[in-house]
Amino acid sequence: MASSFVVGDKFRTLVAELLEKSDSSVPQELRQDLQLLLEKSEPSTLSFRLARKLKKYLQDEGHPFYLHELLEDSSLHLPEVVKPPRNPELVARLEKIKAKLANEEYNRITRNVNTQQMNRNGTLADFGRQVRSVKAAVMTVFNFLVTVVATFACAYMGSQYLFTETTARVISAVIAASVVGLAELYVLVRTMEGELGEP
């Protein structure tokens, strides 16, 4: 926080003239403070306390210039802020908290990473899962084919009691196999939709 002014050349000149002209009227204490200020090498500072005394003197004596005119080329003296040293215990605690937060963030990011899945070829469990899905698909296709072929054979053999011609028997067997095949496909599609989670 500012508590003084860094005085400029104008202040020095006007105050020097003031001290020369009025030897008797300037109070002795104020005169000494101002002379000490002028004798200091630049940059010299004028405290607010001394500035108030000078202002009061200028007002009381009715001088033709005011304090703000004296301080035109002056500036506020802002002392350098000295930062207090940091508490080592606090620094250690902050470092612990930072490390803990970084560890929690790392665990959150990597919680769904499986180290067994890092293998390029996959794990034995992945291979088993793939074999089971392929096996299920092969069994489904095999079941479909066996069902259609068995239906065709049953319809062909059973139609010999109705039809005497081979063409009529084959047509009736194809129609029966097609109906059963379509029904099997419908059931298969509904099952696959259920496995995929669709309605």
UniProtKB/TrEMBL annotation:
Key words, A-Z: Endoplasmic reticulum, Membrane, Transmembrane, Transmembrane helix
Subcellular location: Endoplasmic reticulum membrane
Annotated membrane topology: Multi-pass membrane protein
InterPro entries, sorted: ATPase_Vma12
One Pfam family named in its UniProt record: Vma12
Residues that span the membrane, as ranges: 136-158, 170-189
Location, primary (coarse class): endoplasmic reticulum
One annotated Gene Ontology cellular component of this protein: endoplasmic reticulum membrane
Gene Ontology biological process terms in this record: vacuolar proton-transporting V-type ATPase complex assembly
Record-linked PANTHER family: TRANSMEMBRANE PROTEIN 199
Protein name according to UniProt: Transmembrane protein 199
Source organism per UniProt: Myripristis murdjan
